[in-house]
Amino acid sequence: MENHPETRPRAALAALDRALQVMPVVVVTGARQTGKSTLVAAAGDRIMYSLDDLLVRDRARREPMAFAGGDSPITIDEVQREPDLLLAIKRLVDLEGLHRTAGRFLLTGSANLLLMKRVAESLAGRAVYLTLWPMSHRERRGADLAGSWSDLLAAPPDQWPDLLTKRPTDRLDWRGEVQRGGFPVPALTLQTAEARRTWFEGYVQTYLERDLRELSAVENLADFRRLLGAAAVRIGQLVNQTELGRDLQMSQQRVRGYLNLLEVSYQIVRVPAYAVSRGTRLLKTPKLYWVDAGLGWYLSGAPEPTGAHFENLILGELLAWQSVQPRRPEICYWRTAGQHEVDFVIDTGTRLLPIEVKSGREVTFKDARGLVAFRNEYGPKAPGGIIAYNGTETAWVAEGILAVPWWRL
Q1: What is the CA radius of gyration of the chain?
Q2: Beta strand ranges found along 225-359 (DSSP E)
Q3: H or E segment at 283?
């Protein structure tokens, strides 16, 4: 494996290029160290500034209109460090009236800028947002692809085996992929487990000291660290804030605040329950995952990755694919009162693709029961289902249910 993460193509680049052809402001968000700066640097001939540079940041604060003005398209990295700069960008865009210049401003941020009130108000109707998630396993191996999910959704199930086996790919050990994670540095350049542990520890320390304290007051770092560990051992479980607070001897209000902070800064993701009514989905309890499976495994303290971490790895693949779709589908899970469950459901609005994740090397009809129940419930809208597993054979295990080695997806 080459040690040059900057040379790895990203699936998000095509989506970024599309957005720059349409909107005056394009915002790339995501966790720190996912490769946002490298991605936007590849977006053509632009003037680039980073607000991590104190001198640049000071100029942006003192002379925002002059800083953002000019005829050349500009890129501003880590724009959340100077949110008032966005008021100047708003004015400059509005001065162009109906003849706004597409792609004039390209911004990156490590916080969810949509949830920052001043930012949301400044960019409303002027910006499009693209989230850069950690690298998919195909990106880590040099392909600007984020999975075969679009092919599966577009084709009838009887064509799935041919679609999935025609593209050459190497068998991968999911445990090794979890341990590396999807952040470019540990995934591509660090060759030992000890080096990756050191990197993850430094990431957590820097993240606590910089990003979170800028976003919100973390009243007690020790409490926050304990919550990180507690969240990491609950990967793939329903988010029960009352239980978390009781186990950690922490108020439910503080637990809620810390979880929200982790979500806003792209460290965790809460997957909603699938229901036909989107309003109903919001009332159901979501499941908790880490944005990066490697970071989640490190924080859990588990000696080896488990099936929950494998499930988290597959979710990462789904998120990397979802974010680059022109019409972004929803990713949900499904559970019934009768205890039927499906790990993930892709909902495009017109079609459903249920996905079960199994860490074993073999699957049987028993592993497909949740998928069978889902298809029986939703009929033609869910013509088939997928079991992503750790084996080598692509084979039908029930009507419309295909078991697929995870690295083929």
Answers
A1: 22
A2: 268-271, 287-290, 330-335, 341-347, 352-357
A3: helix 278-283
Nearest-angstrom CA–CA distance, 263 and 373: 32
* Res 2: pLDDT: 40
Rounded Cα distance between 230 and 199, Å, is 20
What are phi and psi for residue 352, nearest 5 degrees? -120, 140
Model confidence pTM above 0.90: yes
Residue 169: predicted pLDDT: 78
How far apart are alpha carbons 221 and 217 in whole angstroms? 10
**Which among 238, 232, 240, 292 is positioned nearest to 266, based on CA atoms?**
292
CA proximity to 115, closest of 272, 264, 234 = 264
How many of the other CB atoms lie within 10 Å of CB of 395?
12
Largest CA distance in the chain: 65
Strand order, beta sheet including 330-335: 330-335, 341-347, 352-357, 385-389, 401-405, 395-398
- Please tell me the predicted confidence (pLDDT) of residue 280: 63
Angle between helices 241-248 and 221-232 (to 10 degrees): 120
Of 267, 337, 236, 309, which Cα lies nearest the Cα of 112?
A: 267
Tokens matching residue 107: 């911004």
Question: Per DSSP, what are the bridge partners of residue 49?
Answer: 76
Q: For 132-267, list the strands marked E by DSSP.
A: none
In this prediction, the residues of the chain whose per-residue pLDDT falls under 70 are 1-7, 113-120, 209-211, 213-217, 278-283
| Count of residues in the chain | 409
State residue 220 phi and psi, 5-degree precision.
-145, 105
Crossing angle of helices 293-300 and 221-232, in 10° steps, is: 110
What residue spans of 96-173 are helical by DSSP H?
117-123, 137-140, 149-154, 160-165
CA atoms within 13 A on the CB side of 62: 6
Contact 113, 32 (CB under 8 A): no
Q: Please give the pLDDT value at position 367.
A: 95
